[in-house]
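Re: duplicated header lines in exported structure tokens

Our pipeline writes sequence and tokens for each protein into one text file. With two proteins the header for the second block appears twice in some exports. Here is an export where it did not happen, for reference. First protein block:
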Amino acid sequence: MAADAPRPRVLMLTSTLPRWAGDAEPGFVLDLARELNTSFDIELIAPHAPGAARAERMQGVPITRFRYWWPHWQSVAYQGGMVWRIRENPLRLAQLPFFFGSLVWVTVQRLRRKPQIDLIHAHWLIPQGLAALVARRLASRPVPVLCTSHGGDLFGLRGSLLTRLKRAILQRCEGISVVSHAMASKVTEIAPGVVPEVIPMGTDLQHRFVPAADPAARLPSHLVFVGRLVPKKGLEHLLDALNQLRQAGVTFSVEIAGHGPLAGTLAEKTRTLGLDDRVHFAGPVSHDSLANHYQRAAIAVFPFVEAADGDQEGFGLVMVEAMGCGCTVIASDLPAVRDVIRNGETGVLVLPCDSKALSAAIRDALEHSQKTSAMAERGRAYALERFDWSVTRRKFGALYRSLI
């Protein structure tokens, strides 16, 4: 590309984004936009939320947030995700057509304006992938569409109608990417002939998610979980495992960092099991402060499961963040998790939903700290080689250029 040639312009569509500075909503899409903004001109479109700006720049990336309902009653996005927001209150279903229509309309408007958009990058098949395809047709702009699935949209949203819709989206996008090899197999199962790129979401393993400067900051019997409090995280099994450890006289403390619809249920179970003095619910934690929580813990536990609706982890970036900070990681043996954890080498895998196996793995890690410390060191090296932003940025940059 000539030195004075304009940089390609990419329009990202997402429903997951920090609503304001310091927000606890996941920031991986914004982080990706920031990283790619060094070589491309990235713009973001996301749903509005009460208290959020309609238009602003975050980390140097321009963001447009579309309204889809009366401003103070917009409630179908954020805080656990769209599926869970609707399950909490089925009346929110009424907002969905307006959400989709508003997303399509603001995308059409942007496609018709200059400077010209060279690529649409939609995060999630439904609704963003579908909205991108509809918008470019309405705008009469032959813009290539790249759609990235992050897991819930692919593994969940079951049923013949939704499966046919996902197949149609997968077949009509010029590019498809997924965040794990397990998801690539699922894409091919739904849409034979579609071969997606496997590009995990990255994170900053060189400056942010690193071990604490003072090794004494790590508490040898302290555990941490980070994530949304939803069924696929499997936290009820973690509490059962912790109860077994308590009954066996094992010393430990646990911090659960995150928020979601199961917060009340999990807190009540903690009280019922008599774990109040050992388990602390930290609530929502901003992305900027996450590293502090990992750096204090010797062990990070992620007891993921496949939820009743089929939803499961697409990748598990929290495991990578924990590994970057030097934690020993114990996680459930699910297909996507195997991209991150090599059992006995970079972490420990246990059977999903098996609280006894989880309890035994935690106890073994607590009692053999020298062995698990060596494992944590190997885990950090493995994560740095494969999941640092430098790797993700290079792979997405190459994919963008191949599509534009």
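Second protein block, exported in the same file:
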Amino acid sequence: MARESTNSVLSPLDQRLVAALQWDGRLTAERAAQALGLGAATVRRRLHALAADGTVRVVVSPVARPRNGGSAGALFLRIRVLRGKLDTIVAALAAREDIPFIDVTTAGDEIFAVARTEPGSSDPLVFRQLPSTQAVTSVESATILHVFRLTSEWRHQVLTAPERAALRPGEPVAATTAPDSRGPYGVDTDALEQSLVEALAPDARLSATALAARTGHPESTVRRRLTHMVVQGRLVTQVLVDPRRLGLPIEAKLLLQVPPDHLAAAGQALADHPSVHGAFATSGPSNLHAAAYFPDLTALYGFLSRDLAGLGITHVETAIVSRAVKRAPMPVQPAPSR
């Protein structure tokens, strides 16, 4: 039997399982089967196959987005390079740990990237390293001021409302950690949580048994703590899958200009749109950035001509991604304590 092409669209069943994992990255085969009306053995086999060949990876998002939108502690970079030097610059950026996202656009000499940085800092990459590189012709940067939608919050629209409701873990609740420094489980809370997150980093679907073996904590403690981390919104997973496998081969980056009195409403409208997997208020002339997936260019045109109408947007620049070079979970700074 010929091996399935790495660019072929997944079957409807596999797409439904990917969508189920987006709602709950640690979803068991039994629970997925019950929610989706499938056989547990079939679900178990397909989940194993999707993970085994690297089609789907479930990872831990560093920090959940604060409810007030918060600041992402990051810069959007738009870098233009000399023709023939694109691959060299892309490779150098991809090797950096502080660059979680890199996209190359169809322009052929243009890179979109995200750089982790301290808000308001004079980032050396932006102020010194890139400008001094002869292959780089221009660098534009914009600070993320507010998060409307993160990629980890995007959902593939192939499940019914009842199926989504059955899969949803529930709304996060406030933490109820006891004032004792050792936390509610007799183990230092920070150390326990950190050890679990580190163990889950390469695979967020590791079982409690495997986590107990790797961290040295009792399995019962691990199970209880994982449940509390999910309920309290401190364990957020993200499904990494090529959108082309979901029948969404077109990805567009949108740089929008919006009057201040329309910014919040426009940003929220974008965040609520099923095609949009990222929406951010930023500094700079394009004060609203968005990224979206589409099945074809006709759908992209419809989004631009119809869905953006009435949002108060005064200018739109659209760039189509030709190659997603690097995609890693994007950290978001937690909201300040009160």
